[in-house]
Amino acid sequence: MHMSSVNGRILLVAGFVIGCALPILSRLPWAEFAEEASEQAIAAIHILQVTYIILTL
Q: 10, 29, 37, 57: least CB-packed within 10 angstroms?
C-alpha cells in the first residue's frame, strides 16, 4: 500500500467526519459557549495572579 493512498483515505475520512459534524455544531449556542470560556479564562488568570503574589511575598 502506497503512502499517498493512505493519506488520501485519511483525508477522505476527515472530510466525512467534518461534514457529519457541521450540522450538529451549527446548533450549539456558540455565544454562550464563548462567554463561559472567557469567564473561565479570566478566573484562571486571577487565580494565577493571586498564587504569584502569595508565592512572592
A: 57
Q: State how far the Cα of 9 lies from the Cα of 34, in Å rounded to an integer.
A: 33
Single pTM value for the model? 0.50
Cα-based distances in Å from 4 to 8, 9, 12, 28, 38: 6, 9, 12, 36, 41
CA–CA separation, 36 vs 45, rounded Å? 14
Q: Span 19-33, mean pLDDT?
A: 76
pLDDT at 48: 92
Q: Reduced to 3 states, what is the DSSP secondary structure of residue 27?
A: coil
Best CA proximity match to 11, nearest among 22, 26, 3: 3
